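Retry 2 of 3 after timeout on previous attempt. Resubmitting structure tokens to design endpoint.
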């Protein structure tokens, strides 16, 4: 079977992207997916450098370059669609996509979030969990729907909060779990296929 085509979207350091790149590099045949492009909403980020170093084409679509958010969404949709992805992975992509993007990629757009959803959705999942005083938190890999971090959950990983944790330390421990989880999930989705039944994601 042909490898599933992935477009990965990033906004920052791209360590989750790197974990995918490494897993594919280690076992190009067996992993079941290839990254065909990396997209971003800003320039000058390590995530784009990682892609370039791996010889993968990149594209940048900045919200500020468009008169309206919907125009940005359309530009992002077109840039992503040009690579004909089977799956789109938001790996630290810090933008909410619009209807146009979801019309095309809904049901095959995966996001990773640094908290145990439905708790602590949004841009500050780690900070919010820490401020709330939870004793366990973690990460969630889920399909994206039209809400903020509300789509069907594919997998979750658990991380214990330590008394001495600050946001940075806790996020680093979450990201260790998150990278493995994302690699595992993306590989299984690509190799096995999946179905979404209501809120449940089944990977046979
Ligand atoms: C990850 O922890 C991801 O869950 C988070 O950004 C980090 C990106 O790290 N995403 C969100 O907070 C989205 N709401 P990376 O750039 O090193 O992969």
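Retry 2 succeeded. Sequence:
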């Amino acid at each position: 079977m042909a490898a599933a085509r992935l477009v990965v979207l990033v906004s920052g350091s791209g360590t989750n992207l790197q974990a995918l790149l490494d897993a594919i590099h280690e076992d190009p045949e067996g992993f079941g997916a290839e990254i065909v492009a990396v997209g971003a909403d800003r320039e000058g980020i390590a995530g784009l450098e990682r892609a370039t170093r791996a010889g993968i084409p990149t594209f940048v679509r900045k919200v500020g370059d468009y008169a309206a958010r919907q125009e940005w969404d359309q530009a992002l949709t077109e840039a992503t669609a040009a690579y004909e992805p089977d799956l789109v992975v938001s790996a630290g992509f810090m933008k909410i996509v619009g209807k146009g993007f979801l019309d095309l990629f809904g049901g095959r757009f995966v996001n990773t979030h640094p908290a145990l959803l439905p708790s602590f959705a949004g841009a500050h999942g780690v900070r919010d969990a820490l401020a709330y005083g939870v004793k366990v938190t973690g990460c969630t890999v889920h399909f994206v729907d039209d809400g903020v971090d509300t789509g069907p959950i594919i997998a979750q990983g658990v991380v214990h909060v330590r008394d001495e944790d600050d946001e940075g330390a806790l996020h680093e421990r979450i990201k260790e779990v998150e990278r493995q989880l994302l690699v595992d999930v993306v590989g299984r989705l690509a190799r096995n296929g999946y179905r979404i039944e209501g809120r449940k994601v089944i990977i046979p």
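Attempt log closed. The mean pLDDT is 98.
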